Amino acid sequence: MPKNSKVTQREQSHEHVTESVADLLAHEEPLDYKSSSLNVGGAAGKKVPQLEVPENDGRPAWNSKLQYILAQVGFSVGLGNVWRFPYLCQKNGGGAYLVPYFILLLIIGIPLFFLELAVGQKIRRGSIGVWNYVCPRLGGIGMSSLMVREAVNSYLITFFLFFIIYHLYKEQLPECDKSSATTYFWYRQTLNTTSTIAESGGLNVKMTLSLFVAWIIVCLAVIKGIASSGKVMYFSSLFPYVVLFCFLVRGLMLKGSVDGIAHMFTPKLEKMLEPQVWREAATQVFFALGLGFGGVIAFSSYNKIDNNCHFDAVLVSFINFFTSILATLVVFAVLGFKANIMNEKCVVENAEKILGYLNSNVLSHDLIPPHVNFSHLTTSDYAEMYGVIKTVKEGSFSQLGLDPCVLEDELNKAVQGTGLAFIAFTEAMTHFPASPFWSVMFFFMLINLGLGSMIGTMTGITTPVLDTYKVQKELFTVGCCIVAFLCGLLFVQRSGNYFVTMFDDYSAGLPLTVVVILENVSVAWIYGTKRFMQDLEDMLGFRPYMIYFYLWKYVSPLCLIVLISATVIEMAISPPGYNAWVQELAQERFQSYPPWALAMCFALIIVAMLPLPVVFIARHFNLMSDGSNKLSVSYRKTMMKDMSNLEEQDEARSILGAKPGEVPSSVPTRKAYLTPGGNKPLDPNSLSPNSCYGSSADIAPTPPNPTTV
């Protein structure tokens, strides 16, 4: 008999129990013609009576829309908004960088964020269940996403921050001859790092304890699902904005803050013509919204089916964008203040050198402009004096060892990643009045940003597994946190900072980009963009703008292919390596990975992407289930109510096509088909997928004479 949706079958206690779809539908409530809701898998334009998806299907739900929005904001707005976006903005032309970033946010970020919100809300599953339904052969998307999330979750740097707060209350940082005090503090006291990745150095005990505390907090926040994590989000999502606004107000009151902001947003338009700028803007959009991690899908799966996810996608995306702008203003207001302090210090030190040269007759007093007063020397006076001396002493000027003391040079010294967030910012805050208070506020903000991201990532791990397999939520959550803590021990060695760099470069970048492009292709090209647009219309009550059709089908896949190509080329031409801390020189130096570390880099990429071909091959040759039998009973019943999922001769069509009064009573009749000798009624959990779920569904023939039990 050909495979169809006529009956379902499952083996229970060595007995085969089968049930017709008609019998299943006979136990349901009458049709509701007043509303049109989810038409999963229905053809566009096909007018059939629709049934409401049961709201009370046992799945947890958000207490309020605000709680859900804060959860999405807490997940998408993370540490990268504070340090990576300002660095990229400065590196790639200041204000000019905002143009490609905003364009790519509109054509890649919002459409793909909307897509993930929609599929999660529509199918009401985590990432594994969602992609098993959309395209069973590409079900490895959810598993690869899970692998990437677990790798990223193991090295999220929140645990660094607890230790930093402890150190911020210590006495003033030591004086250093070869590096700044904060650089020494970061590498030698906080990390106590080794000189190479090959030197383990043993575990940093204080860092290990910080890691343990961080995972206890995350475990307590997610152990009850959204019931616990949702409440945490009220604080962890809002507190960073309070701190950022306080810092912005305080920063604008500092001398030199305007110089920092002006430097930040002064556009270097020629940068817009460089492909590297567009590639880095696309990557930042991609990671800023958390696409491909599964957290977006997991959070949206707890929404009501008619929630306006289009509004949510636009709102959260713009909140994320303006948070990056706000953080950039704060960071460069503070760095402008720091640059001003350092520039004034440079002027004082070099003025003392000039006075020494004047007293020893190395320089003539005639070289000093008459209006220059060494007691109150301004930066402009020093610049004028420096220019005169350089012109007159052209041949021997370099021997004087004078620095130009240009504010622009100090502003250009802002560095990437942890350097900007931890070193430069900490150094700036040492000049704040009541610096311990501001330091604690700043790093407590980073802790909240990190915890928000970790909670979202953990939810992205637990939700699809709990949806797919029958495991105890609390036990599985604790197990995940223990595994993540044990994996995190790799990063709290003295050489752990180098492994953080390795995992950040290789475990997330390329695999996550592949995951997202396959998400896009599976919905737009396999499931069908028209079909998906129709589903959205049924969910939202209005049809999304037609621009999304073209973005999903053509523009976004093309941009992602270009991004993948650029990433592969960058990895090919750039020698794999890391910046090692050389204690003798008190500075960083680039070093290539040893062979074993290089093998580890490629293993991270292969392991993360391995589920994609494995699941495809296994399901193509029917070697494994398509996984859709793990979907909820209420959802599978809803699937059967859609006539587009039934074959032409299925008797369920007569029920769906009947008038409301003709539909059988919703009172259970305990009617079931049993195999010979069977005496057990149908277990609702025994339903297997129909033909809509994939080619591996188990179908049993219909018994000729059904027996009423």
UniProtKB/TrEMBL annotation:
State the PROSITE patterns in the record.
NA_NEUROTRAN_SYMP_1 (PS00610), NA_NEUROTRAN_SYMP_3 (PS50267)
| Protein name in the entry | Transporter
Q: Where in the cell is it found?
A: Membrane
Question: Sorted alphabetically, which InterPro entries does this protein's record hold?
Answer: Na/ntran_symport, Neutral_aa_SLC6, SNS_sf
Gene Ontology BP annotations? alanine transport; glycine transport; L-leucine transport; proline transport; sodium ion transmembrane transport
The organism's lineage is: Eukaryota, Metazoa, Chordata, Craniata, Vertebrata
Regions of compositional bias (Polar residues) in chain numbering: 685-694
What parts of the sequence cross the membrane?
68-86, 98-119, 152-169, 209-227, 234-253, 281-302, 314-335, 437-463, 475-494, 506-527, 548-573, 593-618
The principal localisation class reads membrane
What Gene Ontology molecular function terms does this protein carry?
metal ion binding; symporter activity
Report the source organism.
Lates calcarifer (Barramundi)
- Asked if the keyword Chloroplast belongs to this entry, the reply reads no
- Protein family membership: Belongs to the sodium:neurotransmitter symporter (SNF) (TC 2.A.22) family.
What UniProt keywords are attached to this protein's entry? Glycoprotein, Membrane, Metal-binding, Sodium, Symport, Transmembrane, Transmembrane helix, Transport
Q: Where is this region: Disordered?
A: 657-709
Classification via Pfam families = SNF
* Binding residue positions for Na(+) 1: 74, 77, 81, 449, 453
Q: Which residues bind Na(+) 2?
A: 320
